Amino acid sequence: MDPGSPAAGEPGPATPGDLIFPAVARLELDELLAQLVDRAQDVLSTQGRLRGLLRANRVITADLSLDVVLRRIVESACELVDARYGALGVIARDGHLEQFIHVGMDPGIVEEIGPTPRGDGVLGLLIAEPAPVRLDDIADHPQAVGFPAGHPPMRAFLGAPIRVRNEIFGNLYLTEKRGGRPFTAEDEELVLALAANAGVAIDNARLFGEAQHRQQWSQASADITRHLLADGDDPLELIVQRAGDVARADTTALALCDPAAGALTYDVAEGHEADPLRGTRVPMDDSLAGRAVRDRAPLVVADVRALGGSELDGFDLGPTMIVPLIASQVTSGALVLGRRRGSGLFSDEDLELAAAFAAHVALALELARSRAARGRLSLLEDRDRIARDLHDHVMQRLFAVAMGLQGLAASEGQAERAERMNTYVEDLDETVREIRQTIFELRGRSTPATGSGLRAKILGIIDDMADACGFTPRLHLEGPVDSAIDATVGDHLTAVVRETLSNVARHAHAKAVEVTVTAADGQVIVEVVDDGVGLGPTTRRSGLANLRSRAEGLGGAFLVEPGPGGGTRVRWSVPTG
Which UniProt keywords are listed (predicted)? Predict the structure, then answer.
């Protein structure tokens, strides 16, 4: 080795134009350059993560379906901080998790683990105190409760609350940062920023979902109304079907009131376990449906079985709404909407919309019943008018023609012509008999099959007695005559109306009679007033005694007295049942 050569690692001899640094200064420069490179890498990394945050924000705001938005929030958070597992827990009103949307875990493992968490252990930290939580090892925390069998191992944990309009909506949970590293403060800041934007996206999705839900309820109400206006089949099944679909209920039923019996009957039921519920009869005073009807207010429960002792206790129902059907201050029944245990609770908005739907349906049903009643009355009036026209006009003209022909036949001398005219007279007589038979059928024919209630029976009696009286009695029906009076009292009542009108026709020589039937305050009152000759000393009392016996046998009263303007006033009153 040449003694004049520099040793290995030492700078060679300076040449003209070289820049020479002292040894210490050179080391400091190397360190500074290394720091600059590290910071440049940090800046690039930060820029990349910020771009990732912006990309995540675009992803979670690109859809308005709440379910899609929630899943995208979890997926974006995992990608943003390089987490293997992530979940979003939606907090219910009772403080537990009603939804748990998770990503990263194999479906087979999920099935093996069993039910999703309800918010215990470390997950409950954010529920109790909504603030970010960052742990290097979950097991080291005093509130850790461990994992169920088959659960994959998890150490690093990062949780952040999600607020919607200053209220806690749920929590974002992230575990197992890839590479076995712990989550950093920067990870926490990024997740908090994502959670803030997630709250806005969730709010928008909820508002859109609520608007759609309201539209669905409105459409269901419109469908029911159109069905009723079109005189379609029994609307009760359609009501139950549409309400169950819109409310996302597993079981839907309609219980109708029977005031006379103090009970409700589940006439229609659809969905899960509907068969045993259909046709069930429950007391008004000791049932969930009866409670909603009595209070005239909707009822919502988180778990039917927790109440105990209700008619729904034996069914697999958790969250349930019971909404009364109220129209014109009359409650006709209750709509029951239930979900299986473990399903999401009904919200205040669900209850509000279901109550509005029930009120609309109740009014539509009442209008349909009123229209049907008016149609039956119109039919009866048309029959009476046709019978009256046949009697007053057609029959009189035919009778006059027959009399004229008879007179003409008597004045003619020719026997053959007289015989022909008598044949014509006989034909006219036969025609008159046929018309009389038609009049009798029109006046005596019962109402259509749909009018089989007490009102229809009373109307039929009025029509039947018109010929005997020589005029059609006037009728007034007041109160819930069809629904408030039981069958036994109804049978006695129709007999009383018929017997009283028979007495008027036989003895009163009246030109007008007015019948009033009133059902109110647990009593039914029949009042018959005529303008006839009144009660004389020879008036038969056997019929009156029978009326009095019927009243007293039912715990009621019977009164007969002179009418306010002459004639007779009969008043028969008994309890409705």
Answer: Cytoplasm, Iron, Kinase, Magnesium, Metal-binding, Phosphoprotein, Transferase, Two-component regulatory system
What is the rounded distance in angstroms from the CA atom of residue 492 to the CA atom of residue 124? Answer: 68
pTM of the model: 0.52
Give DSSP secondary structure letters for 451-509. --SHHHHHHHHHHHHHHHHTSPPEEEEES-HHHHS-HHHHHHHHHHHHHHHHHIIIII-
CATH superfamily entry for domain 48-204? GAF domain (3.30.450.40)
Angle among Cα 80, 84, 86 to the nearest 5 degrees reads 75
Q: Which amino acid is at 314?
A: G
Q: What is the mean pLDDT of each run of 10 residues along the chain (577 residues)?
A: 49 53 57 60 58 78 86 91 92 83 89 83 85 90 81 90 91 92 90 89 87 86 78 75 89 85 86 86 86 88 76 84 85 89 83 87 75 69 70 67 67 65 71 64 46 79 84 87 87 90 86 92 93 69 75 92 89 91
563: Cβ–Cβ under 8 A, 6 or more apart, which residues? 529, 530, 531, 534, 569
User: What are the counts of helices (DSSP H) followed by strands (DSSP E) for the chain?
Assistant: 16, 16
Q: Give the CA distances from residue 263 to residues 65, 258, 376, 472, in Å, rounded to whole numbers and listed in that order.
A: 43, 5, 28, 38
| CATH 3.30.360.10 assigned to 233-346 | no
Residue ranges per structural domain of the chain: 48-204, 233-346, 369-445, 451-577
CA–CA separation, 445 vs 460, rounded Å?
A: 8
Q: From CA 263, how far away is CA 281, in angstroms rounded?
A: 7
